[in-house]
Amino acid sequence: MKRLQKNRIEQLSTYLLANKLNPELLPEILDHLACEAEERLWDGKSFEQAFNGIVETADTQTLLNLSVDHKHLLAMGKSLDDIVFEGRNKLYGAYALRKGYGQTMQRSVLLGVTLFLGMVLLPNLYARLVPEAKPEDIAYVVEFTDAEIRPDVKPVPPPVKEEPRPVEKTIRSVIPTVVPDENVDVEYTPPLTEELETAKAGQETQDGLVDVDIITAPSAGNIPGNSIAAEVLPEKVKEYIAVDQKPEYAGGNAAMGAFLQKHLRYPSEAIKANIQGRVFLEFTVGADGKIENVKSVKGIGFGCDEEAIRVVKLMPEWKPGKQAGVPVRVRFTLPIMFQMN
Amino acid sequence: MENNATSNEYVRGTLKTIVLNLLAEHDRMYGYEITQEVKERTGGAIALTFGALYPVLHKLEQEGMLLTESVEVDGRLRKYYSLTTPGNEAARNKTNDLERFIDAVRLLLAPRLAAE
């Protein structure tokens, strides 16, 4: 077997390249033609003869056809994108986008259709799954029991223990009167001055405590006509809840009602929200009748509480409450009704 | 040469089957070997040109019928072809098909020959 020399092979190679054979095909065709040439050399021909014979079979047209066939074959496996992007930068991103376009479209169409159908069918589906309540259906039963309403029981102040008055020691000292002789009480002698130092003069002689300094309220008859009753100062600090005489709006409850009617404005928020009810206000009526410390204890909100507080603060002075005849500070609770007409 | 040209017309349709069948008989072959094998076994009646052979080989390769391996021989790269499993199956089917076709053609041609 004769072997082709390297330069001969190169000669073949240059011939094939000159005929623009696809480089991918080159090694295979080169090998084929080399084998053919070797065969011819084996038959006793010179290389030139063999080369000419090969050029005759592998003419330009045949080689071109081969290249074109190969190109077509490759193109069959390629998509349009591969052809468009041949020799261009595929990493840039557009290639990947175009290649995935079909899949993306498919997915988006499926998703879109699913969502749309879901949106259209959801109400229907919901209505099917959740049956509509019929008017005769009873959802649940609420049992009403009688509500027990009790008035607030105000703590009764513990009764003041009346201590028995200590008995004074008295010595019988009767104002001497002029009587007829036969009526004179002989046994009686007027008390001695020493005796009267530790005891008081009385109708009877009585044993009692010696050193107690008791001041008895002067009886009405005993007060001298021109004496001025000492003004009793009102107690300031202590705040009463229950007193003998409750504080009162000057003019009575009816006047207070009129005052409230005149000044109360129904708050607009409450009107919007359709709110009505009672606002319980607590405030102190001072000993001088002034109203202080107004606050709402239990309100209904929506501006009603603030409105009630505002109006109560506007009130003129009250008649103060009295404890044992002395004006005192009293904590007072006033419900104010908000009611729409 | 004229005889070759006529036979090429029929070869074109059966070339794929011929190549698959030859590869089924051998472990692996390269292009020139196939042409030589065909030439020898048919006594030169069928001559495969490389211009017809290689496109068929490449097509079969792309279809997954053939595997290739390149081996360096005498300073040149030689590309060997061998059948894959689907290629083997295809070789059997195609050979059967071709045989049935040849039988059918023979039946068609027989009466005319008899008449002559």
Automatic annotation (TrEMBL), chain A:
It holds the Pfam family TonB_C. GO terms for biological process: protein transport; siderophore transport; transmembrane transport. The keyword Metal-binding does not apply. Its main location: membrane. One of its GO terms (molecular function) is energy transducer activity. The chain crosses the membrane at residues 108-126. It is found in: Cell inner membrane. NCBIfam families: tonB_Cterm. Belongs to the TonB family. This is Energy transducer TonB.
UniProtKB/TrEMBL annotation, chain B:
InterPro entries: Metal_resp_DNA-bind_regulator (IPR052509), Tscrpt_reg_PadR_N (IPR005149), WH-like_DNA-bd_sf (IPR036388), WH_DNA-bd_sf (IPR036390). It holds the Pfam family PadR. It comes from Dyadobacter psychrotolerans. This is PadR family transcriptional regulator. Residues 19-91 form the Transcription regulator PadR N-terminal domain. Transmembrane segments: none annotated. Coiled coil: none annotated.
